[in-house]
Amino acid sequence: MKLFQCTNCKNTVVFENHTCINCGYFLGYSSYFNTIVSLDANVSQWQLTNLENKTYVYCENHKHDVCNWLVETSQKAEFCLACSLNRTIPQLLDKENSEKWKHIELAKHRLVYQLLQFRLPVISKMEDEQNGLCFDFLSKDDLAKASKDIKTGHANGVITLLISEADPVVREQVKKQMAERYRTLLGHFRHEVGHYYWDQLIRDNEQILKNFRSVFGDESVSYVDALQRHYDNGPKSNWQQSFISKYATSHPWEDWAETWSHYLHLTDVLETAYNFGIQTDPKITSPESLKMNASFNPYKETSFNKFMDTGIPLLYALNSMNRSMGEDDPYPFIISEPVKKKLEFIHNLLKGI
């Protein structure tokens, strides 16, 4: 994530901040200019000289304390781009629902930020029924009313997330039940949106689809049967030699979505390191493999080797820092050579190589 500053007092602020704690100014994020601006707290509409002198208001969801994005008044829209993707949200009179939704929105806004940095199309399904994207965030009451069993997942541009996933206790229980090493709201979003962009970027392009199959395998094999075999038998004992996770072994679509999410993880970590100017000079006898200098913007870097040669030692350092605080590794995965090939496919696809 990019580093931001209050434009009034130059205090460092973070992506989710609504107010600068140093000077008291309101803060708003412009997705078009990718910047946070300071706002006079005494008014509710702002003409901003640093944003082409246009007039802005907060997204309608600002009143729920879940969004600090700005909307240009000439667009005559209630919601910002990120919030316009919501098709279903939970009943907010329920305080527990409201709190879970807030955590979900924080993760979803980070997802949309990243999609925009990749210059990917982000279109609401309410505007484009066939090619758009939308989110259904469902509570236990929504599930009780449903005529069929509903789970977190993606189908035809609709990403469904059970808001119970925003409860860290529930999420940890499911993580243990599924024998997963990593489970977060942001991870869910990155995985599921990978399915959406497979449809948008690969499915209807004959050459790209051919290249995809040469790396990930034939996705036309029965998805339902493949998942059933996975749940019945589990992955092969040597799965780590070729896949980023156990679930990735189940079917090429899931291998793609898992690998896609990891590419997004790595890109975000690299952008943060780039903005902090992080580099390493390990104090060991043979330090070369752990040396890195995050001196580039990963969204613009075309060299996959540079991307990975910086990213892998950065992840090792990140894991080591967490262990120093008595926490689990934030990135408990092995990136094998076959996985690198899959990541390279995604890198080249997103960079137009």
Automatic annotation (TrEMBL):
Superkingdom of this entry's organism? Bacteria
Record the organism: Maribacter orientalis
Q: Which InterPro entries match?
A: UCP012641, Zinc-ribbon_6_bact
The organism that produces this protein has a lineage beginning with:
Bacteria, Pseudomonadati, Bacteroidota, Flavobacteriia, Flavobacteriales
The record's annotation in Pfam families points to: Peptidase_Mx (PF15887), Zn_ribbon_DZR_6 (PF10005)
Can you name this protein? Zinc-ribbon domain-containing protein
Domain Zinc-ribbon stretches: 3-92
